[in-house]
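FAQ: What does the model actually see?

It sees only this:
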Amino acid sequence: MLTGRPHTRDEILHHPLFLSIERQIALHLIGIHKRAPRLARLAASHRKWLLTQTLFAMHASRDKGNPRSGLTAGRMMQAAKEFNLASKNTAASFLAELIAYRFLRDAPDETPDRRMRRLETTETSEEAMASWFQGHMACLDQLDGGSRASRTAGDPRLFLLAQPRAARALIQEPIWKEPRSSIGHFLWSDVGGLVLHDLISRLPDDARQHERTLLKGVTISEIAHEFGISLTNVKRMFKKAETDGMLGWENPRNRGALWLSRTFIEDYFYWQSAKFAELDSAIHWAAGQIR
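And it is asked to produce this:
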C-alpha cells in the first residue's frame, strides 16, 4: 500500500509546488515527443489524447479468460460514441492511423468470431504510455515526498491497474474533458497541447503572482520549427487567445517578449489539476488491490 491518501484536486491546484511540477511534466512530455515524434503527434490534440487513453485502458484491462474483452475496433467506436469523444468515423480513422504506423497491431486470433477485430498495443506505444504515467508519478511524489514512481517502476501491475481507472474517470470528468476556452483553442488543435506545454515549461517561479508573465525568446517561427507545424497553424492557435486578451506580445507584429495572462496560466493549471488528482486517486486504489 502507498502511505497517506491521494491529494484532492484543490489541494494539488493550490499546492506551492504545483507550478514547479507543471514545468517538470511539460518538459517530460516534450521529451516523449522528441523520442517518438510520430506517436506524440498522433495524440497531441485533446480529442486524440482522450481516444488514446481509452484504447490503452481497454487493452490493459483485457481478461485473458474472456476473449471478447480487451481492445476491439467495435468496442472502441462504441466508447467514442457513448462518452462523446469522437464520431465513429473519427475513431475508426484514428485506429487505422495507429495500425498503419505500427502503434497498434492485430492480436492473435483467440475467438471464432471473425466479425470481431481484436487489437493490441505494440512495444513502442506501451513504452511511451508507461513513460507518460511514470512522469506523472514522479511529479506527484514532488508534492509530498511519496514513493509512487519507485513503487510503479518496481511493480508494473500498478500501472496496468491504475491507467485504466484514471482514463475511465477522466473521460467523464467535465473539468478535464472540456478545457476552458482560453486554452481550449490550443488543445483541440493538432499539436496544440505540445505548444501549451512548451509555454508552461518556460514559466518563472513567480508566474502565479502577477497579472502578466513575460516569456522572452518565444517566436511563432521558433514554435513552428520546434514542433514541425506550419506558421499558419501556429498563428491560428494564438489568434483567439490574443483577441480575448489571454496573451500577446509587448510590441506590434508579434515582436518583443510574449506575455501570458494570469487567467491563461490558471486556466491551464485548473485543467491539469483534474488529471493529476485522478492519477493520484488511481495509483492509491491500485496499490490497495495488490497485497
